[in-house]
Amino acid sequence: DSGVTQTPKHLITATGQRVTLRCSPRSGDLSVYWYQQSLDQGLQFLIQYYNGEERAKGNILERFSAQQFPDLHSELNLSSLELGDSALYFCASSLGQANTGELFFGEGSRLTVL
Amino acid sequence: GDSVTQMEGPVTLSEEAFLTINCTYTATGYPSLFWYVQYPGEGLQLLLKATKADDKGSNKGFEATYRKETTSFHLEKGSVQVSDSAVYFCALDRRNAGNMLTFGGGTRLMVKP
Q1: Residue A55 pLDDT greater than 80, yes or no
Q2: Chain B residues with beta carbon closer than 8 angstroms to that of A1
Q3: CB-based contact (8 Å) between B107 and chain A?
Q4: B50 vs A: CB within 8 A
Q5: Which tens digit of pLDDT belongs to each residue from A66-92?
Q6: Long-range contacts made by residues A41-44, C-beta under 8 angstroms, separation at least 24?
Q7: Cα-flanking dihedrals φ and ψ of residue B18, to 5°?
Q8: Residue A50: its chain B contacts at CB < 8 A?
C-alpha cells in the first residue's frame, strides 16, 4: 500500500460528458502528480502541483484541468470526453518538489468512454 | 526532448532464468535514472535508481548500472521468480526539473514455473 488513494477505481461514461477523479496523497506529501497510461501513448505526465500551486505541465489537453486543495488532495477534471480519453489515470505524490525521483503511485482510476 | 526507449515485451522466462531488460535514454544534461515496477492491479513502485554515471542501483536482486557512454540503464536479475511477473518501466528525471519523470513504454515480464 503506497498510501496514495484514488477514487473512483473504475468509471464508465459517454462521449461529451465530464468526470472528476480524486486523489489523496500520502500523509505529509506536498506534491501531487497526474499521469495518463494508455495502450498507444504509454505513461504520460499530465501535471504537477506543489502545496496548492501548479508547478509543471506536461501533455495535458485543454479539456483537462486539475487543482490541489488546501488539505492537499487533488482533483483531475476531464471534460468533453472523447473515446481516446479512455485510459488509466494515475496520481502520485512525493514529499517535496526536489529532484529525488521517488514517486508514490496510487492504484489508478480506469476511465472508459463509450 | 527527453525520451526513454525500452525493449518491447512481453518477455517470457522460466523460473531461475537470467533477466535483462534493455533501456536507453536521450536527455540533455545528466539525468537521474530509475526502474519502476507495476504488479497486476497496482500502481507503480520504485524498484531502484541511480543518480550519476557508473552508479549501480540494486534492490530485491535486481541491478542496473548507469552507463553514460552508451546512455543505457539495463535492468538485470540473475534468477527470476514467478513473483517477479510484472510490467517494468525505465524512467529519467532531469536535474532541476522536479519529479516530472519521463517513462519508457514498459516491458511486461512473464515468469513461468
Answers
A1: yes
A2: none
A3: no
A4: no
A5: 999 999 999 999 999 999 999 999 999
A6: A41/A87, A42/B103, A42/B104, A42/B105, A42/B106, A43/A90, A43/B44, A43/B89, A43/B103, A43/B105, A43/B106
A7: -85, 140
A8: 98
